[in-house]
Specification:
The structure is a homodimer of 73-residue chains. Chain A is mainly α and 73 residues long. Chain A has one domain: 434 Repressor (Amino-terminal Domain) (Orthogonal Bundle), CATH 1.10.260. The first copy, chain A, contains five helices and no strands. In chain A, helix 2 packs across helix 4. The longest helix of chain A has 16 residues. The radius of gyration of chain A is 11 Å and the shape is globular. Chain A starts with a helix and ends in a 7-residue tail after the last helix. Chain B binds a DNA duplex (30 and 30 nucleotides) through helix 3. Chains A, B: It holds the Pfam family HTH_3. Chains A, B: One of its GO terms (cellular component) is cytosol. Chains A, B: One of its GO terms (molecular function) is DNA binding.
DNA sequence: GGAGTAATGACACTCATAGTCCGTTGACTT
DNA sequence: AAGTCAACGGACTATGAGTGTCATTACTCC
């Protein structure tokens, strides 16, 4: 599966666990609201700097972010 | 520390473990040799699609790639 | 010393796309 | 009706993708 979709699904999963809206997470990660929608739906090939901000906003470590079913072979 | 530098260091570390030159890894990941140099030296804010190709070339999982000292808080 | 080779580094450049900002729409809730 | 949320679109600017060129370092061989 497309890495963009995997990342998007993982972000959505974690966002919902935190009870945040897309906009709230977007603000926390300092990205645009519409951009966050695209990311979650796998339409954006995000850079590691933006990914880092989103992971921080999700209050999770890199290792834990990627240690999920989406990223298993 | 800058996420770009962390990623670069981690790539270099894994590349050396495999005994590959930058050029050999670059070819395996289908990126330019000079691009790989820039990545390892933290000068490129790479996208997840390119990162995926490099991680595959390093024969490692996402989780293991990020489960390293560089990415610990 | 000088010639050759392999590996890396440092730029500069073009072109595609990452990322922002404006808005609208539809589903759902109160 | 009014508010919240997700999705989508168009236009725009900033920056990543990808390549070319030259320099440097370290090594080997003559």
């Amino acid at each position: 599966m497309d890495i963009k979709l995997k990342v998007g699904q993982r972000i959505k999963e974690l966002r919902l666990q935190l009870g945040l809206s897309q906009e709230a997470l977007a603000n926390k990660a300092d990205v645009d609201r519409t951009y966050m929608t695209d990311v979650e739906n796998g339409r954006r090939n995000i850079s590691v700097e933006v990914l880092e901000r989103i992971i921080m906003a999700l209050e999770i470590s890199y290792a834990d972010f990627f240690n999920a079913k989406e990223f298993m072979k």
